[in-house]
């Protein structure tokens, strides 16, 4: 089909009447989605829309991350490692998108943000239930976070459920045990409501897997996928910290935290410490 006057003609088969058909907009609930950006600054600040969309899109991606992590955990419980790794691979791609997204918010200068920051009250990303849920699903459990969500019963219930559920790492270790690997009972029987802490007795197991990768390829691949997950998460945390520092310096956070200093401490949190510790032992 040739182009005339720089205008593409519509093909005869293209549907035009949606009075009785589902359209793109109705399927995606676009009237609801696109009306959810409600700036609170008065007069409305030009850059507040950027701030809102940045955080709303983050929440949408976090929703998908949780969906995939829950599925990965279920597949591990049913010994379907391949399906679990497929879900984890998707999470890794989402993480990269989330990290790159910080560069958009970084275009918000300190002057611009200061002109509407006061209208945000005490709202803060610290109060993101889905972000906290992802941390719980990966193993950074912290029951002290729950009171933050007392005013949101559904969010609190979600976090309570994840607090008492095995993390993706717990499920992976249980999977290894069922496959005949020597996973210490102290790890298998741990209190899953607590954050996973470094268990030195796990390091020999991972050393065996890594040094015999050809014979344990599935487990070996899974270990590396989990390492990627943690690396990506830490990059996200670091990019978050640097964007906050770039935008507000060392000011306190709107939610009451110390701001950058508080975010810095998050970089010390780990999900799968033995998978990093084993690297020192390999080849010894």
Could you give the topology of this structure?
Layout: H1 24-27, H2 30-33, H3 48-77, H4 81-105, H5 110-114, H6 129-138, H7 153-164, H8 168-178, H9 185-188, H10 203-211, H11 217-248, H12 260-266, H13 273-281
Helix pairs in contact: 3-4, 3-6, 3-8, 4-11, 6-7, 10-13, 11-12
Task: Provide keyphrases for this structure.
single chain, about 280 residues, mainly alpha, globular
Summed up, what is this model?
The chain has 284 residues and is an all-alpha fold. It contains 13 helices and no strands.
Descriptive report:
With 284 residues, the protein is mostly helical. 57% of the residues lie in helices and 0% in strands. It is globular and about 65 Å long. The termini are far apart. The model has no long low-confidence stretch (mean pLDDT 96).
Strand percent estimate: under 5%
Helical proportion, percent range: 55-70%
Mean pLDDT comes to 96
Write the element-wise H/E pattern from the N-terminal end onward. Answer: HHHHHHHHHHHHH
Kindly state the number of beta strands. Answer: 0
Largest sheet: none
| Alpha-carbon distance between the two ends | 67 Å
Structural class comes to: mainly alpha
Tally of individual helices? 13
Which regions contain 5 or more consecutive residues with pLDDT less than 50? none
Overall body shape: globular
Rg calculated over all Cα atoms: 23 Å
């Amino acid at each position: 089909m040739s182009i005339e006057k720089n205008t593409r003609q519509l093909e005869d088969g293209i549907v035009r009447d949606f009075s009785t058909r589902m359209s793109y907009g109705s399927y995606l609930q676009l009237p609801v989605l696109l009306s959810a950006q409600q700036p609170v600054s008065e007069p409305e600040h030009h850059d507040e829309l950027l701030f809102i969309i940045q955080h709303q899109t983050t929440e949408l991606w976090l929703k998908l991350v949780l969906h995939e992590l829950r599925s990965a955990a279920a597949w591990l419980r049913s010994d379907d490692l391949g399906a679990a790794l497929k879900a984890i691979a998707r999470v890794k791609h989402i993480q990269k998108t989330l990290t790159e997204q910080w560069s958009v918010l970084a275009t918000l200068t300190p002057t611009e943000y200061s002109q509407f920051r006061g209208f945000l009250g005490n709202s803060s990303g610290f109060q993101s239930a889905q972000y906290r849920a992802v941390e719980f699903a990966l193993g950074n459990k912290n029951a002290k976070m729950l009171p933050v969500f007392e005013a949101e019963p559904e969010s609190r219930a979600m976090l309570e459920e994840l607090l008492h559920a095995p993390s993706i790492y717990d499920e992976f270790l249980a999977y290894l045990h069922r496959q005949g690997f020597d996973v210490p009972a102290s790890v298998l029987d741990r209190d899953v409501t607590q954050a996973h802490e470094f268990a030195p007795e796990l390091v020999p197991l991972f050393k065996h897997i890594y040094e015999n990768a050809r014979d344990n390829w599935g487990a070996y691949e899974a270990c590396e996928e989990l390492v990627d997950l943690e690396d990506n998460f830490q990059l996200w945390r670091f990019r978050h910290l640097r964007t906050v520092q770039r935008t507000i310096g060392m000011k306190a956070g709107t939610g009451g935290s110390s701001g950058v200093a508080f975010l810095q401490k998050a970089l010390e949190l780990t999900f799968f410490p033995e998978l990093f510790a084993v690297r020192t032992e390999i080849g010894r």
